[in-house]
């Protein structure tokens, strides 16, 4: 009896996740701008800025390849979740959900499955570009362990923030434009589009340090770049402990914001 109760929501979650993935893939605009756009930017930045970092033997292209993973995770988590929930709210999907056998948890789990599929695929695509186009070496096993918790915390934080922000989007048709404004802004001040981050004014770095993207990019640089590159970070070290604490804090903040801002329909404003 217990197995049946647990299995049914699980099956519905998987089925909903399958539907979410198929719906996303059928929208060519979403595929290009959400999934392929970070890889295209990596090719562009990596080709234009290919100089090496002093005596480290690391090219700017490889630094971009590592840093852009943060951009890919943010786009798939924050923008995809935020825009998707705003659309489902506006077209009445969330409202109709209350009258169907599909539990709310299964619906949200389906959305999370979409984000996970896109995030993993995005990372694989960016790594392929980095390795094949810019000769970025892959890390050893210990760095992959760091990548695992860094990736999980990054996806959770960005997804929860996407859910929270969806509650304040007035019209779904404007969701993409609204959500991409903070995304692009944070990339420029967080050491993703401009490297090394120390080229930025100190006050701008301080602002970036308040948000998760700066720490995500720094963590991914630790994973995929040699230890000699830590001299180009703000403190001259990778600060893995601080990265974990900041991303963990943003997971909590995102959850609180979800509880405060989430609504089922436009009438709940």
Alpha-beta content class: mainly alpha
Task: Compute the separation of the termini in Å.
Answer: 40 Å
Indicate the radius of gyration in whole angstroms: 19 Å
Show unreliable segments: 1-6
β-sheet strand percentage: under 5%
Report the strand count: 0
Please provide the ordered H/E string of secondary-structure elements. HHHHHHHHHH
Overall shape: elongated
H/I helix tally: 10
- Average pLDDT, rounded to a whole number, is 86
Family: Belongs to the ABC-2 integral membrane protein family.
Keywords: Antibiotic resistance, Cell membrane, Membrane, Transmembrane, Transmembrane helix, Transport
Organism: Actinoplanes ianthinogenes
Domain ABC transmembrane type-2: 29-265
Compact overview of the structure:
This protein is mainly α.
Describe this structure in words.
With about 270 residues, the protein is an all-alpha fold. It has one domain. About 75% of the residues lie in helices and about 0% in strands. The protein is built from ten helices and no strands. α3 packs parallel to α6 (about 140-165) and α3 (about 60-90) packs antiparallel against α7.
């Amino acid at each position: 009896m217990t197995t049946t109760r647990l299995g049914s929501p699980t099956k519905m979650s998987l089925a909903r996740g399958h539907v979410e993935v198929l719906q996303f893939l059928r929208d060519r605009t979403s595929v290009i701008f959400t999934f392929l756009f970070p890889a295209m930017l990596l090719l562009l930045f990596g080709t234009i800025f290919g100089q090496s970092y002093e005596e480290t033997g690391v090219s700017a292209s490889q630094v971009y390849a590592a840093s852009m993973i943060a951009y890919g995770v943010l786009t798939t988590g924050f923008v995809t979740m935020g825009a998707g929930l705003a659309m489902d709210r506006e077209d009445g999907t969330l409202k109709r959900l209350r009258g169907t056998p599909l539990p709310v948890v299964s619906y949200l789990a389906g959305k999370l499955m979409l984000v996970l599929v896109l995030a993993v695929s995005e990372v694989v695509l960016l790594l392929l570009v980095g390795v094949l186009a810019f000769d970025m070496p892959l890390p050893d096993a210990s760095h992959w362990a760091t990548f695992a918790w860094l990736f999980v915390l990054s996806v959770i934080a960005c997804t929860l923030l996407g859910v929270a922000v969806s509650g304040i989007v007035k019209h779904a048709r404007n969701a993409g434009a609204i959500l991409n404004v903070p995304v692009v802004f944070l990339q420029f001040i967080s050491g993703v589009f401009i490297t090394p981050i120390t080229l930025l004014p100190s006050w701008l770095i301080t602002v970036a340090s308040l948000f998760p993207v700066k720490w995500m990019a720094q963590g991914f640089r630790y994973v995929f770049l040699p230890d000699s590159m830590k001299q180009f970070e703000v403190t001259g070290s990778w600060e893995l402990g601080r990265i974990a604490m900041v991303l963990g804090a943003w997971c909590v903040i995102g959850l609180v914001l979800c509880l405060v801002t989430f609504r089922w329909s436009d009438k709940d404003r």
